[in-house]
Amino acid sequence: MSETISVSMMVNGERRDAEVPVALMLADFLRDNLRLLGTKVACDQGACGACTVLVDGLPTTSCLTFAFVAEGRDVTTVEGVTAADAVWDAVQQALHEHGAPQCGFCMPGLVMLSKGLSMQPASAEAAGWLNANICRCSGYEVIRRALAPWIATRGIPA
Amino acid sequence: MLQYSEIAATRRRIAEFQLFRPDSIDEACEILAEAPEATVLHAGGIDLVNRLKTGYAPGRIVALKAVERMQDIRIFDDRIEIGAAASHWQIENHAGLKISLPMLPAYVAGLGNIRVRVQGTIGGNILAGEPVYEMLPLLGVLDAELTFFDASRRSWFKLAARDYRRGPTAPPFLTAITIPQRSRSVIWDRRLRPALAMVLSLDWDGDMIRSGTAVLTGDRGGPLFTSLPADRLSRSQAAANCADIAADWARLFPSVDLPSGPGPDYCRHVAGVMLRRALQNCLLPS
Amino acid sequence: MTLRANQLTQVGRSIPGVDSRAKLSGAARYTSDIAMEGMLHAKILHSTRAHALIKSIDVSAAQAVPGVIAIVTGDDLAALDPHYGMFIRDQPVLAIGKVRYVGEPVVALAAIDEATACRALECVRVAYQDLQPLMTIADALAPDAPALFTDELHAHALPPSPVNSRYVQQPSRNVLFAYDYAVGNADAWWPLCDHIVEQNFSFARLSHYSLEPHVCVARFNEQGLEVWSNNQDPFLLQLDIARIFRLPVKAVRFHTGFIGGGFGGKSYCKSEPIGVLLAQKARRPVRLALTMAESMQTTCEHGAQIHLRSGVSANGETLVREANVLLDGGAYADASPSVAMRIGSRFNGPYRWKAVTTKVKVVRTTTIPAGSFRGFGSAHVTWAAESQMDVIARELGIDPCDFRRRNFIALGDPGAPGETPLDCELNEGLDAVARRIKGNGGPRINGRGIGFAVAVKSGAGGHRADARVRILPSGSALIATGVSEIGQSTRTAMTQVAAEVLGLAPEQVEVEEIDTQTTPFDAGTHASSGIAVSGIAIKQAAEKARDALLAFAADVLGCRQGELDFRQGEVVHGDASYAVADLVARHGDGAPTDFTGEASKQTGAGFFWMPAWTAAEVEVDVETGAFTVLQLINAAEVGTAINPQRCISQAEGAAVQGLGQSLFEEIAYEGAVPANAEPLKYRVARMNDLPSRFETVLLEQGHGPGPFGAKGVGEAGNLTIPAAIANAIHDAVGVRVTDLPLRPERVLRAILSDKIR
Ligand SMILES: Cc1cc2nc3c(=O)[nH]c(=O)nc-3n(C[C@H](O)[C@H](O)[C@H](O)COP(=O)(O)OP(=O)(O)OC[C@H]3O[C@@H](n4cnc5c(N)ncnc54)[C@H](O)[C@@H]3O)c2cc1C
Fold first, then answer.
1. Which of B52, B60, B126, B127 to mutate to test the pocket of ligand 1 (most atoms within 8 A of CB)?
2. Is C678 a catalytic residue?
3. Which one, B223, C113, C396, C419, has least CB within 10 Å?
4. Which residues of B touch C290 (CB under 8 A)?
5. Which atom of ligand 1 is nearest to the CA of A47?
6. Which residues from A are below 8 Å from C212, CB to CB?
7. Which of A43, A104, A140 sits opposite C656 (nearest CB)?
8. What pLDDT sits at residue B163?
9. Is B179 in the pocket of ligand 1 (CB under 6 A)?
10. Residues sharing a CB contact under 8 Å with residue B285, sequence separation 6 or more, in sequence order
11. DSSP 8-state symbol, A66
């Protein structure tokens, strides 16, 4: 019998309770249990950030975070950002208009990383913030340009 | 010799374990003492989880997340106490630290990336035992003291950060880090990381250097601490001898050669340059 | 009817990618997202030895683990045709009796979940008898080196030698392939040179580092085999899998969705047969998802040693050049012979030479097999050749840009006899980057320097692509090609081409998913062929579909076809317009359900040239050898930009890969073990590595052979970066670094001229 544990957390604004293996990663809880396939797992080592989700508003490497760590906390995935309002989120819109996605595999993680930045009132290290995730295709320049308003103001644009 | 694992590391490979979630330090100590050999701590989990993915299966895991006391950062007149489970993010954003020891939040804000800093803890950084991780060397030059609980002996002990080295077995339980408050200048150079990084701290007594410590660390070894050759140098004495002092220090850097690495001679040469520049930075009027 | 540039409405627009919203919202589905009823999960046991005989494999304990359904080893390959490789089939699906690199798949098993599969693999015991590892080119060529292959080679038809060349397969021990190229009479020209420069260069073994690792799901059913994979070349893989498993090609069906990065790493057969083998044995669907580290140990870019000698006249005319290249091919052939041919015939670069001779050897070593990689050999060539061009210019005292301009091949000139005439004008790009990097000029700053590099790479040689366009009764169109969407924006570009021809908005064009059973054939998503070759096929297919519709409409409306046009999804006749559905309804019984056009495009040896120009500015710390790239200005030339923004993105992305290759990328070995072939340890460029000034100039000279004058762009932008940076370092501090990556200690060593190790 495998060791299980009950977890309860808010995912994209909905309360989720489940009995899961203790060793289950948050990324797999989201993908396998909740079928939220937007979150991607790429490097499986915490290097690339493709699996980034927000936990209590801060970017979190879901392939390095046990599901039980999110107990009682507020988790947001790319589906949550997309569905939050009927309108497209501002960071997604900016990335879209600047043509940021190439293969797209890093994009859900990058959207969440950027969303986390946009929610920061004033971060001193905005450019450093976006350095967290790897995009092997785009050369970053489009991303840098798309997110310039957030980097420049270090906060939510008016 | 580098070992190659015939089964690729993956989160799917993590063996099941018994999970403990104490909410006090005492409770954590009790759990550890029940089976010291088979129990490991999970702070932020970055290094632990990556290790579990390679097949390492300790059996019992104690998550420190709920021990709020271990995330405390407290500022006293003579010292600063940081709970071992404080995250990098908490340290870099701590209002009191920004006033009392501003170099620490500034340094920490440059570590890794935002994901690592949100998840990773200062204790995990120290106890992961990775030579490239910077908290142990940094705390060493700040003359910090580490407070440990030895679960097998059920006893508490303190150790200077400078003297701690993680061995191959699970480390003792680190609960807090104490940094003395002093008048000091701290300068660092991380530009050549991971090959080499350097921190220099000079403690001042008026215009005299009471003591000075430098540390070199890199992916080929370290941390390597050295003290200024003589105590109580005057600013001008030290300034006049920057190059010699730096060269003496640099020679002590250990010689470890890795493929594709820069080689020991390069490290020694550049260590000398970094130290000289740091000394000049501290000592010479700009 | 041909459209002139000023009449174009869809081509030339920088619309966001047609799949951009899906990718940004997480709705885009990749192969790694596929799950199906009853699906098993596979895991691989890799060799821990570089070179060893397999004495025994004991899987009994693994077999006994509950939840394990099938285990396969080299013994399970007996009934198959078990080797693969692009031209030389030498790589077994699983090791057969012998392993040849650390990481080689030895055993694979399928279980109810990955955790069970991992646990079961831990119970497998493999006994090896070690043989001598051959970790480097020197090891493999040593007189007493053992032969990595002792048995017959599994070769099949190699292509005819490209012009001016000849090749030999396995000319000597541990040499997989040798390729010689010669134009002109080198012996006659060397004595006439006033100045000769000779240097050795090295190029590092690189990782593709695609974020989505190799993954496939395979299942057998009554019709045969069905596979979902993220391979770049579904049609080639279909043929390979059919051959390996002795199945009729028709019984093998491949599906390809979005692919999370490729860069060549997902070209040609890789781990897919292992998944298929397990599905066959388990009689259940099997998912084989490698980890990114496993992917990095599946294939890589060739490390190389290049000896280059060039002779010029006193006034700076390029006369004769000789290159000797040793490529580290790793343990198996993969695409190495083909890469060797490209390298061998590309040392002319963008210049006129009286004579060029090249000898390339692919050396087998007990390391990760090297295969296709963005640039397909041109990165190696450009690194050495453009570094040396700079050295020559400096020694002659000629401005490096002037020296290049003096010798550029002219537009329309083949450069060397038999080559494809150059379809771009090289001065424009060099002028553009030179002008921009210098800005307002200003005094020279100590420790700073500027360097240039230029390259041309051939694209889409020997490629075939088919396409189909269907106009539906709704007036919208469905288009189908076998080019996989790997980030290059093929769906967007093809949509714009079809929309242009059909007078539709991009939203009215939909791209079909790739399914080898229904999708028209494509020779593979490589060699930057997509827009130029498939784009032509799509354009022609769209024209045919429109003609079919208009012929039908003319019939229904009782007019001549020439009086009709198709615009915005409706058939237009004078002032009247008709919905397609209405025309179909008017026709009544027997009306077609759609209007289909099909077309095919086959190219010859070379189809177009992709040029790249780079100007870099660096600042060097002379005491540590560390340097900062302050500016990186690149230019790309795409004939006609179907979507300028997507073209710039290709160039930028390639340039940043080139930046990583310049600064830190290298798979290093420690003994027999790859020391950093895993994501956390292999350093790739991140956002903060970008120079503060990073610009891309997009040129459209209009000579591309593709639709509306387009050509490919994907593989050029990385080529010039390392040499431009090395040249800038030379300009800054007067020293030459000839090994990649340009690590600080190499720069410092050059500065201190070997005083320190
Ligand atoms: C991409 C990346 C970049 C990084 N960059 C940098 C960098 O630039 N500079 C740098 O210094 N570091 C860097 N790091 C390291 C990072 O700071 C550490 O991984 C992190 O701090 C570890 O903390 P954790 O709480 O997650 O550790 P955990 O994984 O929870 O713990 C690590 C180890 O310490 C043990 N442990 C944890 N807490 C205690 C305790 N209180 N008592 C006893 N044992 C304990 C655990 O059992 C485990 O063995 C980087 C890491 C990554 C992944």
1. B127
2. no
3. C113
4. 8
5. 1
6. 40, 42, 103, 105
7. A140
8. 94
9. no
10. none
11. B
**Rounded Cα distance, A75 and A61, in Å:** 12
| B68-180 CATH | 3.30.465.10
- Any atom of ligand 1 within 6 Å of the Cβ of B249: no
Residue ranges of chain B whose pLDDT lies below 50: none
Interface of A with B in 64-123 (CB under 8 A): 64-66, 68-69, 113, 116
- What local confidence, expressed as pLDDT, does residue C99 receive? 98
Taking only the tens place, the pLDDT of each residue in B45-96 is 999 999 999 999 999 999 999 999 999 999 999 999 999 999 999 999 999 9
Which pLDDT tens digit goes with each residue over C607-639? 999 999 999 999 999 999 999 999 999 999 999
Task: Report CA Rg, chain B.
Answer: 20
Domain B184-282, what architecture? 2-Layer Sandwich (3.30)
Distance between CA atoms of residues C262 and C266, nearest Å: 5
pLDDT digits (tens, 9 = 90+) for C653-678: 999 999 999 999 999 999 999 999 99
Cβ atoms of C433 and C613 closer than 8 Å = yes
> Is B50 close to A28, i.e. CB distance below 8 A?
no
C471: enclosing H helix or E strand: strand C464-471
User: How far does B149 lie from chain A, in Å, by closest CA?
Assistant: 24
Q: What one-character-per-residue DSSP string does C17-71 give?
A: PTTHHHHHHT---BGGG---TT-EEEEEEEPS-SSEEEEEEE-HHHHTSTTEEEE
In the block, residue with structure tokens 């939840």 = C67
Specify whether the CB–CB gap between C256 and C639 falls below 8 A.
Answer: no
Q: Chain B partners of A20 at a C-beta cutoff of 8 Å?
A: none
Nearest CA-CA partner of C353 in C390, C313, C314: C313
Give which of A45, A55, A66, A154 to mutate to test B binding, by max B Cβ within 10 Å.
Answer: A66
CA distances from C406 to B207, C435, C678, C752 (A): 64, 18, 45, 34
pLDDT in tens, C122-131: 999 999 999 9
Residue A21: CB atoms within 10 Å: 18
pLDDT number for residue C40: 98
CA distance B21 to B45: 14
Q: In what order do the strands lie in the sheet with B39-42?
A: B18-20, B60-63, B39-42
DSSP H stretches of helix in C588-718? 644-663
ipTM score for this prediction = 0.95
Calpha distance C657→C665 (Å, rounded): 9
Q: How close C348 comes to chain B (CA, Å)?
A: 31
Sequence spans of domains, chain B:
4-63, 68-180, 184-282
Helix, strand and coil in chain C, % to nearest 5: 30, 30, 40
Q: Given the structure tokens 């010479």, which residue do they identify? A: B284
Phi, psi of A145 (to 5 degrees): -70, -40
Give the pLDDT confidence of C418-464 residue by residue, as tens digits: 888 999 999 999 999 999 998 667 778 889 999 999 999 999 888 99
What is the set of domains in chain C, with CATH numbers?
A: 2-28+463-602 (3.30.365.10), 34-133+209-296 (3.90.1170.50), 158-207+300-408 (3.30.365.10), 418-460+604-757 (3.30.365.10)
Within chain A, residue ranges assigned H as helices are 26-28, 78-84, 90-97, 107-119, 126-130, 141-146, 148-153
The whole-model pTM stands at: 0.97
Q: Which residues contact C625 (CB under 8 A, 6 or more apart)?
A: B266, B270, C743, C744, C745, C746, C747, C748, C749, C750, C751
| β partners of residue C480 | C468
Give the Cα-Cα-Cα angle C389, C393, C397 (nearest 5 degrees): 175
- The helix (H) or strand (E) run that includes residue B199 is strand B197-205
pLDDT of residue B257: 60
The verdict on a CB contact (< 8 Å) between C291 and B13 is no
